[in-house]
Every structure is written in C-alpha cells, then in structure tokens.
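Box 3.1 A note on notation
Throughout this textbook, protein chains are presented in two layers. The first layer is the amino acid sequence; the second is a token string describing backbone geometry. Keep the layers aligned when reading.
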Amino acid sequence: MSKTVALAAPVPRAQTASSRSLRADRLFYLLAACAVLIVSVVGFRSFYLLGKGFGGNPLTQQIVPLIHVHAFAMSSWVILFLVQSILIVAGKRQLHMVLGPVGAVLAAAIVVLGTAMATLSAHFNPRAYEMFGGPKFFLIEMLTEILLFGVLVGIAIAYRRRAEIHRPLMLLATVVILSGALARCPYIADLAATPPLYAYAPVLIFGAALFLLQWGMTRLANRWYAVGFAGVALIFLLSIPLGRSALWNQMVGAFIP
C-alpha cells in the first residue's frame, strides 16, 4: 500500500511581504491612535485636572457649559479612534463597522460645537488669542481646521469599504483638530505662537512625523495620506492671507473686537 506524502505549497514571497506590510500598517494606526491620545492628555492636562484653560488661565466664563460639552465630544472621538484601531488589530472588523455610525455622529457634533466654541471664545475672550495673531486670525485658523476635519471625515465615511482610503483620511482628520492639544504641550507652545503659521505648524509637523513613521514601518509611502496632507497644507497656507485680509476683518469685525 503506497503512502502519499502531501507537501505544503511554498508561500510566494510577494504574498508573505504583503501580509507583513498589512500587519505593520494596522499596528501603525494603533500606535498613531496612542500618540493622539497621549498628545491630548498631555496638552489638556490643566483642563482635565484643574478645569483651567490655556496657560492655566480660567475658562471663558460665558461659554463654560459649551466648553465642557465640546471637550467631551473631542475626548470621545480620541477614545473611539483608539478603540477602532484596536478592533482592527484584533480582527474585529464587524464590530469596528458597527461603531462607525457613532463616529459619524461624533464628527458632526464636533463640527457644530467646534464652530460655535471658536466663534464665541474669540468674541468673549479676544485677549487670550493675541499671541496667536489676534482673535480674528485665530478664528479663521480654527474654522479652517474644523472645516477640513468635517470634509476629511465625510470622504473617509464615503470610502468606508476601502480601507486604503478610509484609514489614512480618518487619521488625517484627527491630526487636523489636534492644534489645541499640541499648542498646550511642553516645548511646543512657543512654536504654536510663532508667525506666520501659528497653530498650523505643530499640526503639520506632527502629521508629517506620522507619515514618516508609517513609511518606515510598512516600507510603503501612503499616497492617500500624502495627497490629503498636501491638500491640508495648501488650505492652511491659503487661509493665512485670507485671515489677514481686509475682507475677513470686515466680515467678523462687528462680532469680534
């Protein structure tokens, strides 16, 4: 009686390399989510521990409830981003998709709350933003970031079944709204107050660092992140002359001193 010896077919090198790259890519998003959480906690430590604003100053009294609701929404977004990254690494893709609508609702809330808080904060507490180029310029920076966040999340949701687009744009959207946390981190506050980029500079540096980290881990340059990042940088740069223009100052001059 003859015996048949079944030999396992060798796995092609390209397939093995692709599998390693996919694991590294998923691990990268988990590390990026952890970095976002650390930046948020370190940056807003005075708020979380002492209920204080930038530089340990009191919160803008006229909008304290709005600030707390906004902070809750932002914190929830950062935590959800981490949870979603963990679920993908753990292979829980179905649960990841179930939680997707929660992220969409949170994103919409952040756009509305962020717009209201930036506008009212510049109105009621203009002196707090002199170091960032003045309240009018501060406002256009914040509104630009909020608009970009909403657009990037919207595109990411539209391409939620294409991970190669969905994941980098979700990460980029999260990076875009980190200016407040980054500006409060040690050694970064001075950079965030340096013209002409002000709060944009830490965001661009942090975003570029994540791009390089992913490239190093996966040996692949993420083209969707790169395209999105280039678009964000361009819009940031275009908003600077707009924020200094007579038109913008006239538009917001009646509401912001």
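The mean pLDDT is 91. The radius of gyration is 21 Å.
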